[in-house]
């Protein structure tokens, strides 16, 4: 799951459910003519291993055992390929039947994603050869682990088009990531009379933190509604974004409704 803010324009993998947060600067900052930068809000909080990440992570790692075929499949996925059957073959968990003759279909990726072979192999290699404390040791294994950790941060920054890798903060999950933004940047920048725009299709992890913030600060929550076909009423949603809007947060793909929200269009609507 990835949160994004400000001028960052994430280019996501097709079909990967995640949430995007966009914000506008506080009035004070906007008036001074500067924009909020990396020091104010991380542009990405990543809690999942993405297919492209696994592709890059494995490439060039000494002892990495993922096959070239496996890596190139991951890279094609990152490039927007729609050869899903081919992609499915990379996920050992998807090669099973839940009942005789019924292949497993797994849709709960927003909660726990299945891992492609390249990730499983790299995890096994890492725990077998490098596993050590990150940023807390001077010995060989610690240095290798730290390097891998920091390289992953660079890869994620590149993937979400973040201007600076230091904007990437790893968290355990989406709930922790959104609460982190709510408890830090949002508490410091959102006040009484400011507005937060969400949709009615949000998971609790992207609802409760904002409800608590609104209770605490007096900010107002506004909700985008659905069309009768279960997709977001985009025109209505855009009409909710005004000069009072401090933060817009919505999922990119709903794993309940299956719809893909026009994140780019919404981000461009931000005042
Ligand atoms: C659609 C959706 N969004 C967000 C979350 C929260 O994810 P996490 O458990 O990583 O905090 C879940 C978890 O089930 C989910 O299904």
Explained architecture:
It is a single chain. The protein has 2 domains: 19-45 and 169-269, Aspartate Aminotransferase, domain 2 (3-Layer(aba) Sandwich); 51-129, no CATH class. The longest helix is centred in the middle third of the chain and has 20 residues, at 140-159. Helix 2 (51-58) crosses helix 3 and helix 7 packs parallel to helix 8. 38% of the residues lie in helices and 12% in strands. By secondary structure, it is of the alpha/beta class. The radius of gyration is 20 Å and the shape is globular. It has 10 helices and 8 strands. A 4-stranded mixed β-sheet has the order 1-8-6-7, sandwiched between helices. It has a two-stranded parallel ribbon with strand order 2-5. Mean pLDDT is 78; it is low at 1-20 and 22-67. Pyridoxal-5'-phosphate binds at residues 1, 17, 47, 110-111, 173-175, 203, 205, 255.
